[in-house]
């Protein structure tokens, strides 16, 4: 029987993925996991992206019902998208469109390229979106995906300077979140020692740090601050522990200067982070490198370009912005069998710099790293701001505790107001502290706010992903 279009496009896609993978299992050098890819010229990177796109687009058309319907609705054929220059013909796919598909076709939606027969043959693992906004959605990835995923993450980890000689303490619940598992798979590939840190309290984790001397801890920035304070309360200086690297995830930290400074000072360690999203790139999209923090304090994050195409689009028109201008991140994932994506709107504001980095990597860098999804934007009487801007203001005031809360409410006259609740030893004479926080926040986002100063220890301690914003505005 002749091979069907569905099978032929799948075979070609998998062959193309393999053709452009270098150093699948062992690193090519000390500095780079895949030197020829990590330091490829821009022309070479674009040639790889084009070759992958030419195999991907027919594969999606033949195998993903979601993509097939979209091609038909737009009046496009696979031959219309052959190179990265053709990508703008394909309107970005946003989260709302994927949610609509998942609701119409529960429980998984139809974006995947796998039918149940292929899933059963490959084996799979299920994950869910973090659910910051909207209901959590589930995603399956095949064993083939996991292998490409471990390879991509190994490249990111190597860029961050994590490898042989390190012991990594994974402080995560090992729930269905892509980040922790992806890092775990990569560390296994890299033969780096790992201590799993799920299912224990902060004191037990602090004791592991004292007894087994991990050099890297992986957790949210909120948790790294909390754990450092717990060690201090036990009479131990976190800065004197073996921890040299804080591998931060779940919340932005690299791009928030005062949060980064607090972490660096508390632990006497450097901060590195991954960037990505469950939908478009379950493995690393962005990663820190040795040159991520410039001498002037500026911060950049690389994006892995031979396995993804990263673009920035205007928030309103969703048209590509000019190089160097700020826009929202869009990812085309070229590194998965089950869920490659064409132009998924990840939705973080940044600007790109494609000059060669001091670390030798050529892959584009996000200037200022990432400081929050457009979805998380707070709108107060038409003034728009990110929680990270408020965090920058709050954590810039010395003596303020690590925890804080942003409360959006409605005053008796019907006006929407914002109150920031912070902790400070001077809570009984709060005026000076409140004025300093208000001034710092006004510098960051030009908004007037109320400040409530509480005694230290009043706000709940953050164990994992922090919920900083409480919106109790009346809806009328
Ligand atoms: Zn670099």
Between the first and last Cα atoms, what is the distance in angstroms?
Answer: 64 Å
Report helical residue fraction: 25-40%
Order of strands in the sheet with most strands: 4-3-5-6-7-8-9-13-12-11-10
How many β strands by DSSP? 19
Structural descriptors:
single chain; eleven-stranded mixed β-sheet; four-stranded mixed β-sheet; 19 strands; 33% helix; globular; binds zinc ion
Description:
Helix content is 33%, strand content 21%. Helix 13 links the parallel strand 17 (416-423) and strand 18 (450-454). The protein is of the alpha/beta class and 476 residues long. The strands form 4 sheets. It has an 11-stranded mixed β-sheet with strand order 4-3-5-6-7-8-9-13-12-11-10, with helices on both faces. A 4-stranded mixed β-sheet has the order 18-17-16-19, covered by helices on one side. Strands 1-2 form a two-stranded antiparallel ribbon. The protein has helices at 5-19, 35-38, 42-63, 65-74, 95-104, 116-122, 143-159, 178-189, 202-212, 221-233, 257-267, 387-394, 431-445; strands at residues 124-128, 138-142, 168-170, 194-196, 216-219, 245-248, 270-277, 281-287, 300-303, 308-313, 327-333, 341-353, 365-367, 378-380, 383-385, 404-410, 416-423, 450-454, 469-471. Helix 1 packs antiparallel against helix 3 and helix 3 crosses helix 4 (65-74). The chain is built from 13 helices and 19 strands. Zinc ion (ZN) is lined by residues 289, 291, 302, 357, 359, 361.
